[in-house]
Amino acid sequence: MVRSKCWILAAILLVGPVAFGQSQGQQTTAPDHMEHRFDNPEQLAKSFDDPARDAWQMPDRVIAALSLKRGQVVADVGAGTGYFTVRLAKAPTTPKVYGVDIEPKMVSYLRDRATKDGLHNVVAVQAAADTPNLPEPVDVVLIVDTYHHIGGREAYFRKLAKSLKPGGKVAIIDFRTDSKEGPPAEFHFPAEKVKAEMSAAGYKLAAQHDFLPRQQFLIFELASRPSR
Ligand SMILES: C[S@@+](CC[C@H](N)C(=O)[O-])C[C@H]1O[C@@H](n2cnc3c(N)ncnc32)[C@H](O)[C@@H]1O
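# S-adenosylmethionine complex -> structure
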């Protein structure tokens, strides 16, 4: 019995699509976002930080596309185990990186990982459902495989606008509608839906990159400065 439970757990963690949200039993879906707990960072790290991910996630190319400048501040919202946070922190421009997550165990895991790796430019931040709780305005917000987990997105991104420096960008990477990987199909949002939602929240498209084989990569900036 115990052995078969272990096997089922191992199988769940080995299958990429499931690790990125397609599990049974734990989730309840709402019309506009997917609720799912990511409360087992040690296990999830096996898939999130699997070196094989680099082939399709292309982190160096993604980070290059963000065009970071020295001294800039980045927030990795929905940072998980820190796949992008640690790479951002090691980028040549060595930005200060807020690794933000709603799951307390992920925040602790990321804090420990940054300490072990000697990444003094990483700050782990506990998010709430309606705000990333950023302690200062940032130049770039990166949101990877997390947009579909955020509820009330129009209000969320309107509020987030107040945490962007002038010229700040929000980069959203999430699974394409035709991707076999990722969360259940209803949470593979068409790019047009993401653009429409971001437009309603006060943003305009600044760039769209098509080099990722599984995900769309959209970069937004504010259509106008928010009133503070
Ligand atoms: C599929 S994982 C992606 C992790 C990471 N971005 C990566 O690419 O490896 C989604 C993460 O987003 C977090 N998350 C979900 N909703 C969130 C929210 N509203 N604010 C911040 N983090 C959230 C989850 O706890 C989880 O760690």
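# post-check
Residues 2-14 form the longest helix (13 residues).
The radius of gyration is 17 Å.
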